[in-house]
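User: Before I run my own analysis I want an independent prediction to cross-check against. Here's the chain; please return only the structure tokens and, at the end, one sentence I can use as a sanity check.
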Amino acid sequence: MAVTVPEDVLQDDLALFVARVTATANKQAFASGVDALNSVITIRQMSSEDRAAWRVDYGDQDVLGWRGGGLSVDVAADGETVKRVLRGQ
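Assistant: Structure tokens:
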């Protein structure tokens, strides 16, 4: 999916970094059989021993009827390394 990105977004380091984290997690989600385009995605920053890391969660869009089966991908502070993958029951 091609998207035109406004110049002010390209100047926002945090926005670009979160996009990198999301792309890294999406690649892992796809490899794990998760359809990221049809998932509810949440991203949160977590602190580890010495650096920040990111957790990207993928869940079913039917949040009321959904029970388990989500995927969480922990991405290292570099934004490009998957540290851990957790699959819900």
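Sanity check: The CA atoms of residues 31 and 41 lie 16 Å apart.
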